[in-house]
Sequence to fold (112 residues):
Amino acid sequence: MNSQGDRAIDEEGESFDWGTLVPLFAHPTKVALIEAMVFIGRPLSASGSMHMFDCKWNLSCVSYHMTSLAKAGVLTKVGEQRRRGAMESYYYFPPEPYFPAEEGNEGEKRAA
Fold:
């Protein structure tokens, strides 16, 4: 499969427009979290990221999406710090990207 811009092209020359499909499934909060970490280049906590978003989302929403990105292998918990009586978890990208299992294969880590 080749790609041309936002379009994937298979062996038969058929194309698929990823640029149209992805925004329908990628949650804006998850995209914003990933972009924020790429921009600042260091781990973030849910509450720490709230300052970057000018409280556009509530803390439980940001925390949920950060945790779901970690469960999917996109982020890794890299530390914790006690703050105001609660544990604040920090997340960042894993050193090796994780690719989910495909039909009968177990998940694997590959070099990017």
Q: What stands out?
A: The radius of gyration is 17 Å. The mean pLDDT is 77.
